[in-house]
């Protein structure tokens, strides 16, 4: 009996890529007699638009997906702070004042999410009162945990390689966003009892970091299912920032959501959209 989740951020309308992701998670749960959860990830600072959550619920119902809603991220800020304090007490966090431009200029390697942070602020920490993010000292964390593995339902057993991403940010400099994606989603999935973390293949590399955080914080270890992505004619995944057509527009125009969901399940995609693993 799997527990899966769909966890959209209310910073833009849902599109077909979201529909595909939600359907995959929903069906994996339902086929096992399990539970499909909806979690609103609403801590993205000023970009979050609370009114979109109602549209998300309507979109899922329109597609014929039934769900249980769990607490939104904004209700869990205290838990993020406790976890960050725990890691800091273990000596595994350090402050960083570097900008993205400075990191790009100083980086000596590229990771799955871009330039790997070179550890500048380990040697030259920010001054007292200087605005700073807090990064995870991955080498120190791995020295504490030893080798780790995690299991993907499609790719099989994986050695955890959080070092590939470098010392990622766990607490952001911007006070309006109290935790990074890595910290928040790891804690949320544990709190919600998720047993199968279902998400796009573009987040495969993030799992290395999440597995490390689970070990450090004594959290249960789920399995993962990184599904293929819907992409456009240029091979780019559908995205809010590219103004991919909104599900709500299709819903309000009177399109049959159940028929759309059935077509997606059968691989019948609209023109100009393909299924890709990356």
UniProtKB/TrEMBL annotation:
Domain Glutamyl/glutaminyl-tRNA synthetase class Ib catalytic: 3-259
Top-rank taxon: Bacteria
Annotated PROSITE patterns: AA_TRNA_LIGASE_I
Keywords: Aminoacyl-tRNA synthetase, ATP-binding, Ligase, Metal-binding, Nucleotide-binding, Protein biosynthesis, Zinc
SUPFAM superfamilies per the UniProt record, alphabetical: Nucleotidylyl transferase
Organism: Alteraurantiacibacter palmitatis
This protein's name: tRNA glutamyl-Q(34) synthetase GluQRS
Stated family: Belongs to the class-I aminoacyl-tRNA synthetase family.
Top class in the EC scheme: ligase
